[in-house]
Amino acid sequence: RGIGDKAGEGVVRELFSGQALEGLFAWLAQANWIAKFPNGTPTVTGVPVGVLWFLAIAALATYDLLRTRFGNWIFAAGGDPNAARNSGVPVNMVKTTLFVLTACAATLVAILTVLDAGSTDARRGFQKEFEAIIAAVIGGCLLTGGYGSAVGAFFGAIIFGMVSIGLTYTSFDSDWFQVFLGGMLLLAVLFNNFIRRKATGER
User: Fold this and answer.
1) Which of 37, 153, 166, 188 has the fewest CB atoms nearer than 10 Å to its CB?
2) What pLDDT score does 74 carry?
3) Domain residue spans in the chain?
């Protein structure tokens, strides 16, 4: 978005928004000048490959957070960056690495989407970061940082996905979906804080 804002309304903006060459590549694919992506096939019968990746990454993230030095650094940098920095934790490196890993995860989701559906849209991930935050908070992660788990985020994503899909089968007005997301985030934060206070004995 920042590059697009700096580029204004010129050609550069269209290049970075994924729209300038969209028609060209679609025409080249139909003319068989370039190869099309085949539909993804399940590695395990009846189980989409995206589910397997979801389980594998959740397991890997859980191991990393609980069993490695880098996992301890993540909790320390999220809880109190100044104290972590004074303890020798490379806070800036940890945060940069997490941003890079987030980008890699988004890339993986995009690849799986293309392999499964045969096509995608550069704007399909628009505002998905808001939904990711809601899923993490539902799973018990604190917005202030320093507390949470990959398992909690795993189940938070499942709960959020089930609720979102369930809304499509009702008469719920799609224009109110963002309002629903905000309300869901607020309730998740309040419930999260209530459970944390009960667990720590705070008032």
Assistant:
1) 166
2) 92
3) 1-36, 40-200
